[in-house]
Amino acid sequence: MRDKVWDFHFYVANDWPEDAICLHFPGMTLSPHGLLHESVGVFCPNDRLELLKLLRDEDILIDWSKPLYINFVHYDIAEELTRLYEDTGTIERVVGDVFVCENTGNVDDALEPDDEANPDVQVLPLKAEHAEAIHELYPANDMECHEVFLRLIRSLPAAGVFCKGSLAAWMVQSYYGAMFSMQTKPQYRRKGYGTKLARYLTKRVAERGYRPFVVIRPENEASQNLYKKLGFGKLYQTVRMTFMPSTWHDAENESSTVLRDNLENAVRQLTIEQKVLNAFQNEETVVQEELVVEDAEEVEEVVEEFDDASEQPDVADEESEGRIEMTEQQSLEEIAEEPAEEAEEVAENEESSGNVAETPNDVGGDQDDGGTDAGDAE
């Protein structure tokens, strides 16, 4: 009560304290229907267990026709509640052994030789930023909300083992006083981190004025041996139970079924609509592609026409250049032919006058013929 974690709800009998029975509704423990009075803890002296009949006869907070979730109670109380509930419905039970540390001085005596040898491993207080990771690995995270761990870390002792700065294992003190939720990440197990946490948190809890205790499953011998080394001893057994009436018909299940069916129908309808939209989109895509092809063909035609137009001047230039070259060639031939024509005219005039002149070529030709004859004579 010194370190408030949540708004707890306590109810006592009308004749309190003569009728020493108390109901505790934690409020933060999650229940299937989210109702405050679905989850309850019961406290009364073991020699006054007959007071539990008030829960069935006079209590107006608990509706026995609906499921009821009993938080950890003393084993004897659980047995009496079981008898009161017989022939009403089914009961599920989880049993735990409560180990209490009577002498915290034994904690330091349990030091191992190499406990503090590794400087990369440190035990440090947890911070709010670690709450989410702790909740994710908590075995009963369907019953405890994330905010519970956030408040516990802020208000009560909570510690973690950090290996090279990374959170490897952790443990916190619960709102009902127990040291619980010792978890170690798989890659860091079997390294003695659990012992470090238990020793550290036991001392912190005792320093705050609380009596350190833990709840351990009867079959978990390893944890029992660990806490025995630290000076813990078994005090009693506690039980957590779920009462489920045989006549219980969960109307919310019907609503959930209807909601699920409606959701499935909506999904089917959306699927059909999506297929129709996809079909329209495909048609639009085809039309757009056809338009793109037509536009591309038109562009190609324009480009070809432009290319043809740009090539025609080149042909004309080549033809004009050819004509210029031919004209120049013709001019040269005409110039070369004029002296030849003049020479022919002179020769014709001389022949007409009867005087024939020998040319050097004619003389040379005769000498060649004479040489040939002399050879034949020899």
From TrEMBL:
Residue ranges of every copy of the N-acetyltransferase domain listed in the record: 121-249
A family per Pfam: FR47
GO molecular function, one term: acyltransferase activity, transferring groups other than amino-acyl groups
Annotated Acidic residues bias: 304-320, 334-351, 365-378
InterPro entries: Acyl-CoA_N-acyltransferase (IPR053225), Acyl_CoA_acyltransferase (IPR016181), GCN5-like_dom (IPR013653), GNAT_dom (IPR000182)
Start and end residues of each stretch annotated as Disordered: 304-378
Protein name: N-acetyltransferase domain-containing protein
Species this chain originates from: Dufourea novaeangliae
Lineage, opening ranks: Eukaryota, Metazoa, Ecdysozoa, Arthropoda, Hexapoda
